[in-house]
Write a structure and sequence with these properties.
It is a single chain. The protein is an all-alpha fold. It has one domain (2-89). It has five helices and no strands. It has helices spanning 2-25, 34-37, 40-47, 51-89, 110-113. Helix 1 (2-25) packs antiparallel against helix 4.
Length: 120
């Protein structure tokens, strides 16, 4: 699933770049602005007299593909997140049996613990 989502993410990035380039290639209605600055007239030389129809159709198709890929990636990530959380919860937990605390031994006094010094 992760590989498929990676491929779809790459496709979404490529469609996004294509969509930006196609929009910038379109000639502005007032013959000014960003369309003219980025080579709006070059599109007519490349595609001929039907440039408006070709670029408009390409823009519409790229926009539809962009939204389909975006929705598919969103649903895929939701599915991946939901199933990752369920699998982590379903792992068994093993608890160690409780051991009783050892009984505390009575403390020895300091004089009893140390041997008495011997006289010479």
């Amino acid at each position: 699933m992760s590989i498929l989502l990676g491929i779809l993410t790459l496709a979404l990035v490529l469609v996004s770049l294509f969509l930006v380039l196609v929009v910038l290639m379109q000639k502005a209605k007032s013959d000014g602005g960003v369309g003219a600055a980025m080579g709006g007239g070059m599109a007519e030389a490349t595609f001929g007299a039907e440039t408006g129809n070709v670029l408009s159709t390409a823009t519409i198709r790229a926009a539809v593909l962009f939204f389909i890929l975006s929705m598919g990636l969103y649903l895929g990530r939701l599915y991946q997140h939901k199933h990752a959380a369920v699998s982590a919860v379903s792992l068994p937990t093993i608890e160690a049996p409780a051991k009783p605390a050892p009984a505390a031994a009575p403390a020895k006094s300091a004089s009893a613990a140390a041997p008495a010094p011997k006289a010479p």
